[in-house]
Amino acid sequence: MSFDVVIVGAGPGGAAAAVALAQLGITNVALLDREGFPRDKTCGSGLSPNALKIIQQLGIAAKVKELGYPINAVRIVTPGGRELRISSDAAAVVLLRRHFDHLLVERATSLGVTLMTPFRADALIEEGGRVRGVRSFDGKEVHGKYVLFADGAHSVFSLDKRPKRSISTLMGWWENFESAPNTLDMIFDKEVSPLYGWMFPETNERVNIGICVDGQDESGEKSTRNLRATFEGFLDRHYGKRLGAATQLGKWKGHPIVYTTWIGEMTRPGGLYLGEAARLTHNATGEGISQAMESGVFAAEAVASVLEGGVGESRAWSAYVQRHRRRFTGAFLAGHALRAVIASPMLDGVADVYNQPMVRKLVVKLLGSALAGSAVNDRPT
Ligand SMILES: Cc1cc2nc3c(=O)[nH]c(=O)nc-3n(C[C@H](O)[C@H](O)[C@H](O)COP(=O)(O)OP(=O)(O)OC[C@H]3O[C@@H](n4cnc5c(N)ncnc54)[C@H](O)[C@@H]3O)c2cc1C
Q1: What is the DSSP string of 236-270?
Q2: pLDDT in tens, 105-120
Q3: Which of 88, 173, 282, 347 could form a disulfide linkage to 249, CB 3.0–4.6 angstroms apart?
Q4: CATH class as words, domain 2-68+95-162+260-343
């Protein structure tokens, strides 16, 4: 089978690329995934204000609003145990990935994209130094003029040879958990510093709770920390009483979040990398859905510019990389600054003076935008 574009991976990055291609008039597109949809994905399922903007552009905002749980406040607990509550009218939404990813995939197929599942891409088809398609582990072949790699954190096709830096996570789901309406928690507990633990409400009764910690120790080696023991301690300290009255749903799950500060290799002749396959997640918040979708839109626009014949591939590919660097590097650098703030006594100091209106305004602006994954110095493209 032969297509204009083959997309490997139908998570938010790959599916957004498929929708954006179709919106640009390119529908001879194969969207492949090793799993059938709807499928689960280990994730907090938080859609930031940035993510909601892209969702609007992709044409599924009304359905996300209908199915999602709206968030308009963040309760922050500092390493010293003080509390801040940041309210915002730029509401976020929590929508279980099983439903969110399915919505995006359905949107792509409704616009004429061909979904092929289960298709586990295992090898590249190359011709004359160009990628021309992929082969599945059971020998099926799909050919394309262009291939987009959106196969997530464990990308088997990544060209980025740098050691992976990652955030380790562990999370669970609970029902009948009592929490303040429309409020998510970010708990900057000392044991997980400079990262955090979270509680994201998915409905009025069901929540997900998790922790993220650095996947590397100070020397850069893979961390040997006992994540399960760290999570048990975290749950005990912050939610012990309330969890006693709640019911756990299923087992705890963990998955790495792969990040980079300096965007690396993300093109090859005939192909582009996007989303977490290109390590585009925020190193301090772990946010990756909005970056993946935005990256998918950038990939669609780059491929469309070449297919329409106006721009040569090498020019389009280098513009693609530059566009990502302009869009995300500021936010990724701000992530490291945020980590430094969290590891210092600064957050506790801020909490002490938070009731002063000037301070409150500043915190909402700075911390609010950092938590939403966009830096103050991030320039629009
Ligand atoms: C515990 C946890 C909590 C998180 N919470 C949040 C959050 O609240 N908000 C947020 O914005 N981000 C969050 N993230 C990050 C977010 O989940 C990812 O960054 C995001 O899903 C990346 O999107 P993607 O499309 O690039 O990759 P993915 O969502 O990983 O999608 C990749 C797709 O490729 C498919 N695939 C993989 N290999 C192959 C193959 N060989 N052949 C065919 N298909 C393949 C997979 O089945 C999958 O469907 C969290 C991550 C974790 C681990």
Answers
A1: HHHHHHHHHTSEEEEEEE---EEE-SS----EETT
A2: 999 999 999 999 999 9
A3: 173
A4: alpha beta
